[in-house]
Amino acid sequence: MIDRSSRTAEHVAGFRALESARPGGSLFHDPLAWRLLAPRHRPVVGLCRLPGVHAALVRYIDRRWSGGPRASAVVRTALIDRWLASALSGGAHQVVLLGAGFDSRAHRFPGGATWFEVDHPATQATKRRRLGRHARPGVVFAPADLITDDLATVLRAAGLDPSKRTVVIWEGVTNYLSAEAVDATLRALATLCPAGSTVIFTYVDRGVLDGTAQFPGAAEWHAAVRRQGEPWTFGLDPAAVHAYLAARGLRLEEDLSTRAAAALLLPAPRQAAEPTAEFYRVARALVAG
Q1: Three-class SS state of 57
Q2: What is the CATH number of domain 7-287?
Q3: According to the model, what pLDDT value does residue 229 have?
Q4: Which segments of the protein form a coiled coil according to its record (predicted)?
Q5: Phi/psi zone of residue 8: left (φ > 0), alpha (ψ -120 to 50 degrees), beta?
Q6: Taking Cα atoms as reference points, which of 69, 80, 73 lies closest to residue 284?
Q7: Average model confidence (pLDDT) for the chain?
Q8: What is the mean pLDDT of residues 238-248?
């Protein structure tokens, strides 16, 4: 049971704020990421607009946290933004941010859809306080603990319309849950959302957890989150994801490592200079008809 806002959520917001402050053009622009940082960290991002400071801080972070967590978070944000925009233009009318953390999409994406943010009450309270007047009116905040609360009950009570095509974003969460919790959540989503709805989620390669595969920087990254009290507890075998999802009423459409996403999204010089992870993955599935 987490009784405070997530430290990993804080870090990812920091990575988004840092990318948004990149001189000469960023992969995305998230103006609210800065506001979601703890006040003591905001001046650091402000300094990154000075010549040379941004590049120096990026190099420092990437050396201190090896394995590519910063750049992996950046490319997964850009990739999910792209998939979300496509689903919304294709007729989705609801978006569920599951384990929303300090995700700002509900407050920075164009209007038109109904947004639901589901997260632990502690993290959600911190987020709402930091957003203040910048929170978009009409966003539905549904406090819940995904380990103990029934997701279907939470979303129905929040007003989710089961007849409307929905996009679910489950970013940076599955690797902190149990296999039973991930299974129950995916089955609930396939039941709650109509056919054609999109489920986007991230996961780590199971080989990192069971020792059957070796990836550069994986052990160091895992050790870092373990020290913060948020160890990885769940992973999937990429070769088995299609069958895993099919058994739960979902059809896999795309499944990319953050390194593959970087090859699609980052300019070549950044790909070479900013490490991303082969073991950290982003998947897009549709609710089967």
Answers
A1: helix
A2: 3.40.50.150
A3: 85
A4: none
A5: alpha
A6: 80
A7: 93
A8: 98
Given a contact cutoff of 8 angstroms between Cβ atoms, the answer to whether 271 and 241 are in contact is no
Long-range own/partner contacts, residues 239-243 (CB < 8 A, 24 or more apart): 241/203, 241/283
Domain ranges of the chain: 7-287
Provide the percentage of residues in the chain whose pLDDT is more than 70.
98
- Closest C-alpha among 186, 167, 169 to residue 236: 186
The helix, strand and coil proportions of the chain, stated in percent and rounded to the nearest 5, come to 45, 15, 35
- What's the whole-model pTM score? 0.95
In angstroms, the CA 159 to CA 269 distance is 46
Q: What is the pLDDT of residues 249-258, one digit of tens each?
A: 999 999 999 9
CA-closest candidate to residue 48, choices 26, 78, 75, 71: 26
What is the amino acid identity at position 21? A
| Cβ(92)–Cβ(286) below 8 Å | no
Residue type, 49: R
